[in-house]
Amino acid sequence: MICQQGERRLRVRAVYTGQLILEVENPYSGEVPLDENVYPTVREEGHGWGGERIRAFVRENGGELLYRVENGIFNVRLLI
């Protein structure tokens, strides 16, 4: 998920409507492989620990975690 220098940005949005909705987006180029649960798969050793910890946190707190990859944007939405 490497972007050209001029395309680097991170969009973070948080909304509370009785539950917290946290959304993070960033552009990417290339392929973002997703597994059968629509979670990003890791190809390099030492990467992916953050995603596993986030999934565990969401699971332990009865939340929902959604990943979407389309039109050059990688989007993660956490509902808790």
Please summarize what this structure is.
This protein is an alpha+beta fold and 80 residues long. The protein has one helix at 49-60, and strands at 11-16, 20-27, 64-70, 73-79.
Structural class: alpha+beta
Mean pLDDT: 82
Helix content: 10-25%
Mind telling me the C-alpha Rg? 13 Å
- N-end to C-end Cα span: 27 Å
Task: Spell out the blueprint of helices and strands.
Blueprint: E1 11-16, E2 20-27, H1 49-60, E3 64-70, E4 73-79
Antiparallel strand pairs: 1-2, 2-4, 3-4
Explain how this protein is built:
The protein is of the alpha+beta class. The protein has one helix and four strands; from the N terminus they run ββαββ. The protein has one helix spanning about 50-60, and strands at about 10-15, 20-25, 65-70, 75-80. The protein has a four-stranded antiparallel β-sheet, covered by helices on one side. The longest helix is centred in the last third of the chain and has 12 residues, at about 50-60. It is globular and about 35 Å long. The mean pLDDT is about 80.
Name its key features.
80 residues; alpha+beta; four-stranded antiparallel β-sheet; globular
